[in-house]
Write a structure and sequence with these properties.
Blueprint: H1 4-29, E1 39-42, H2 43-55, E2 62-64, E3 70-74, H3 76-92, E4 100-107, E5 110-116, H4 148-158, E6 162-167, E7 173-179, E8 183-185
Parallel strand pairs: 2-4
Antiparallel strand pairs: 1-3, 3-8, 4-5, 5-7, 6-7
């Protein structure tokens, strides 16, 4: 006898398969020259645009932390894709109503975009592998493909940068995208990163 849960899973299987194929194709194309379409972006405007997109994910308190000023050569669409993925992960892995903060700051001549949550954090031994394909630390959940963070890392790498995660002071995790190179602050750095 088929249960409602079984029918729901069966109905959603094609959508999950389609998503998996799309994400694998995206990862496969991330090393191609036409993967990025860069242009100068105003960093403060980008930060507030990313916050506005995150706010559509759910009704928790989303906020902007430090906001860097200046310009950076980047693919705005891909960066948005990466930060929205990080924000969605923060929403998925923290209790409803838990605050999440998006920030931008300069680290030398590199732009650092971050998403900080107040969830359980990432164990130190899992921080490097969490960006590997098909890695899922919470195996109780069945709604992800295990490719989201590897896509984030691929977008950072395509910009010549990297993605990482560290502890948030007071508990939680801070996921960061570091984009080096064609970035120029205007002297108003917001929060300096170490």
């Amino acid at each position: 006898m088929l249960t409602t849960v079984t029918l729901t899973r069966a109905a959603s299987a094609p959508a999950r398969m389609t998503r998996l194929v799309e994400e694998l194709l995206l990862l496969g194309s991330s090393g191609q020259p036409d993967f990025l379409h860069t242009e100068p972006a105003d960093v403060a405007d980008l930060t507030f645009s990313l916050l506005a997109k995150a706010e559509t994910l759910d009704d928790r308190p989303w906020s902007a932390g430090a906001v860097a000023r200046g310009r950076c050569e980047l693919d705005r669409q891909r960066i948005t894709q990466a930060i929205v993925q990080l924000a969605a992960n923060a929403a998925r892995h923290t209790p409803p109503g838990t605050p999440v903060e998006l920030s931008s700051a300069w680290d030398g001549d590199a732009l650092v975009l971050s998403v900080a949550d107040r969830g359980p954090g990432i164990p130190a031994g899992d921080r490097a592998r969490v960006f590997d394909r098909f890695t899922r630390l919470d195996t109780r959940r069945s709604d992800g493909t295990g490719l989201g963070l590897s896509i984030v890392a691929a977008i950072a790498a395509a910009h010549g940068g990297r993605a990482d995660v560290r502890d948030r002071p007071g508990g939680g995790a801070v996921f960061r995208l570091r984009i080096p190179g064609q970035c120029h602050g205007d002297g108003h750095h917001g929060q300096e990163l170490r």
